[in-house]
Amino acid sequence: MSLPKxxxxxxxxxxxxxxxxxxxxxxxxxxxxxxxxxxxxESLLEDLKGLLPSLQYDMLKKRIENFIYFEHNGxxxxxxxxxxxxxxxxxxxxxxxxxxxxxxTGLHFNQTGWKKEDTYTLEINKEKIIDNATTKEIxxxxxxxTFYKVNADTPIxxxxxxxxxxxxQTMVDLEYLIGEIVTPEPPIEDPTEPxxxxxxxxxxxxxxxxxxxxxxxxxxxIDLHGIIGNKHAYFGNRKEENFFLNFDYRQHMTNxxxxxxxxxxxxxxxxxxxxxxxxxxRLNEPVNLKxxxxxxxxxxxxxxxxxxxxxxxxxxxxxxHIDLNTLEIKEINEDISxxxxxxxx
Length: 345
What we know:
Layout: H1 10-29, H2 41-51, H3 56-71, E1 76-85, E2 90-96, E3 102-111, E4 119-124, E5 127-134, E6 140-150, E7 156-162, E8 168-178, E9 208-213, E10 222-228, E11 231-233, E12 239-240, E13 243-247, E14 259-263, E15 270-277, E16 287-295, E17 298-307, E18 315-323, E19 329-337, H4 338-343
Antiparallel strand pairs: 1-8, 2-7, 3-6, 3-8, 4-5, 4-7, 9-14, 9-16, 10-11, 10-15, 12-13, 13-14, 15-18, 16-17, 18-19
């Protein structure tokens, strides 16, 4: 049974208990640790360092300070975009491009309408950081567990897949730390590939080869696509039966290598060739296409054309059709919607 407070004065009990506990603690610790001279603070700090289990904490501290104060100057930023989504089933894409390196830390997403069929993707240089995430009925924020570094001038693509065909407005905010330097996108190279590939470097047997070349000294990523019936050879699917994208490159700052596609057989089919400006960078020169036929006496160039392509990554250019039986080549030279193109695959 408890005692009423007006009978017992708890403050008197706790004050005495505190004094007794401090007395016991002081008796136990006295003489077991050397006295610290606070007059020499530098020496004191050095002594404290010696008590740490390892210098790794000191190194970690330096790395954190380095990152916060020197790499991005301690500045966190947010860039927002408003997308007007039309009532059409299509892919809606918005690019963020920064002139310095950035470190992504989060993504905020909201919209005025919601349908369960819709999804979104965050793509950086063909790598999907968020892949077909389902939209939510209320706004959401995705925190990255660590920052994701994106080099300067590299497109960060937010893609809303409007599968429902519902019209709305979509708000997207990218959170990032801004860097102080500009790092060129490093080349992504297969060490097994030749340094300057030509059709002579195609390892598989082939009848027809298509070589696509674009201007030098640019970060533009021009992609070569080939379609035969329901078969599609491109950077995301480089091998079909007797149908290959043999060489693929993402830029021309550190190389000037062509993309090469080859086909064996399919004598009753049409090979359709498409070009896509993947990161939407403007070119000062047309793209060059060459079509070769493999003959017993050597490789024969049967067609060469120059093609201007759009700086928009939302369109893809249908360029030529090759009859694989007669080798007749028909020039198409027509821009079509990338959404329409992908919807037909």
